[in-house]
Amino acid sequence: KTMRTSRRVILGSLAASLTLALGACGFSPMYGSSAVGSTLSRIRVETGDERVDFLLQEALIDQMGSRHADGDLTLRTETDLGATGLGVGADAIVRRFAIRLDVDYALYRDGETDPVLVGSTYGEASYNLSGSVYASMISEQDAEARAARMAAQRVSMQLVRALDEIQTHGPATP
User: Fold this and answer.
1) How far apart are CA 69 and CA 74, in angstroms?
2) What radius of gyration, in Å, describes the C-alpha atoms of the chain?
3) Helix count and strand count (H, E) for the chain
């Protein structure tokens, strides 16, 4: 019992020390109640018409918490989906593929033609072909969804960094 109590005291002291240390160095969470985190949830998302664009849009909306966005910013994306054969079997047939989803994005303020910021990133995932056409198709679709989620995470992280930089230091000048 004394061991448990001392462990709790030590862990509590460690947590308090970390909180004070991180606060002293200027650390603030990227998500949460910060102005940048709440800005993300107000950004509308517009993507293309392909299946992978829909997957990216859903992943971005989930990642940014912007399902009911009502702000004056719109994120527009363009995607390019590619697949590369990775694993060639003894029968000289490619059995493993890598999916790469390249995403170019721009953030626009309503009524303005020049973007507030632009960027690009990508998401990657791989899948195996199986003996079944249906199973192979499902594996490919799953890889596309994973690549879209990875790209959405990267886009939202880049947006958070850029918006924080804009709020902290003002817009960049060319």
Assistant:
1) 9
2) 22
3) 4, 4
Contact partners, residue 44, CB within 8 Å, separation at least 6:
66, 69, 71, 73, 74, 75
Q: What is the rounded distance in angstroms from the CA atom of residue 159 to the CA atom of residue 150?
A: 14
Which residue shows structure tokens 């195996």?
A: 128
Place of tokens 């880049």: 158
Which DSSP state fits 3?
H
Per residue of the chain (174 residues), give pLDDT as tens.
555 556 666 666 666 666 656 555 554 554 444 556 678 889 999 999 999 999 999 999 999 988 888 889 999 999 999 999 887 777 877 888 999 999 999 999 999 999 999 999 999 999 998 888 999 999 999 999 999 999 999 999 999 999 888 777 766 655
Rounded CA separation 98/85 (Å): 6
